[in-house]
Amino acid sequence: MFKTRITEMANVKYPVLMGGMQWLARAELVSAVANAGGLAFLTAVSCCSVKELREEIRRTRDLTDKPFGVNISMLPVLMPGDLTDAFMDLVCEEGIPVVETAGRSPEKYVDLLHDAGVKLFHKVPALRFAQKAESIGADAVIIVGFECGGHPGMDDVPSLIQTPAAAETLSIPVIAAGGYCDGKGLIAALALGAEGVLLGTRFMASEESPMHDNFKAWMINAQATDTMVVERSIRNAARIMKNEAARTVARMEAEGATLEELFPVIAGSVSREAYLSGDLDQGTIACGQAVGRIREIKPVAAIMADIMDEAKSVLARLNNLAQS
Ligand SMILES: Cc1cc2nc3c(=O)[nH]c(=O)nc-3n(C[C@H](O)[C@H](O)[C@H](O)COP(=O)(O)O)c2cc1C
């Protein structure tokens, strides 16, 4: 049920994907999604070297015989020490079936990936970038709405507008992301013309998610209003949980802080520490508005089963409505 060009391309059972999540989308979580019939992306930027990513790929393969992808998040500008080139070579060498890119145009890597038989799913926060991705040869586009955890772009356009706009405009398949977290959302995304949904926040709140239980407890009590968007001043808007670090960043931005001044608060290494220690106020922690709809931490297999069961019952309800 729910076969689309995405399930065919990625050779997975369900059109449900888990996007890259720095520090969290590691072997345990990625293999759990794969074993549950979805497509998940191991996140390269959780690894400090090519060797570490290779080991993480091998570890994931020990935990699942199902397909999984690798997320290669690129910063908007090339920074010293950037490992993107080396990560791209590695995914080709390792025969990874799908790469999720984000952050800047993956144009430079299209031929490399395709020559190695790797599909390219590029994640974008606006229609114009989706069109550009199609024009350079991406195999699918993931379009995120303003609700999403992580980077929603600078235009503040929500998923209800982004998803159908991309699906109507592009010929390649569109994957909807941002705020989707259940079976109702899956059916809505398919109705809007998407061929899959990509979730971050919902899988962040799973048993297999490798973050301190304090964050899981926070998530199941949080409201949709408990996230905020920061880093607009450096044109890197990010939706994160509303905590002390988020308020500090907002205050510093209002006072005109530069990237260098913000860096000690927003650096990925600080969030990693927080995930380990359970300090809820330390670090900027990506989190989408869907957090307000998550009331239970469950194993990934149960989350996926709930999504598919609910999708089927929503469809049955709609069919009944159509016949009445
Ligand atoms: C904790 C967390 C970390 C994330 N880290 C990354 C990342 O490293 N690279 C990336 O491309 N997207 C990242 N994202 C974005 C997700 O892949 C996905 O696009 C987003 O979560 C979808 O919206 P949703 O949170 O409403 O489901 C992150 C999201 C979350 C919640």
Structural summary, described in words:
The protein has two domains: 5-210 and 297-323, Aldolase class I (TIM Barrel, Alpha-Beta Barrel); 213-289, no CATH class. The chain is 44% helix and 14% strand. It has 14 helices and ten strands. It has an eight-stranded parallel beta barrel with strand order 1-2-3-4-5-6-7-8, surrounded by five helices. α2 runs parallel beside α3 (50-63), α8 (183-191) crosses α14 and α11 packs antiparallel against α12. The two termini are 24 Å apart. The model has no long low-confidence stretch (mean pLDDT 97). The protein binds flavin mononucleotide. Flavin mononucleotide (FMN) is lined by residues 19-22, 24, 43, 45, 71, 73, 102, 123, 144, 147-150, 177-180, 198-201, 204, 286-288, 290.
Question: What compounds sit in this structure?
Answer: flavin mononucleotide
Q: How many structurally independent domains?
A: 2
**Strand and helix order:** HEHEHEHEHEHEHEHEHHEEHHHH
Shape: globular
Strand content: 5-15%
Q: What is the CATH topology descriptor of the largest domain?
A: TIM Barrel
CATH class of the largest domain: Alpha Beta
Distance between the termini: 24 Å
Low-confidence stretches: none
Number of helices: 14
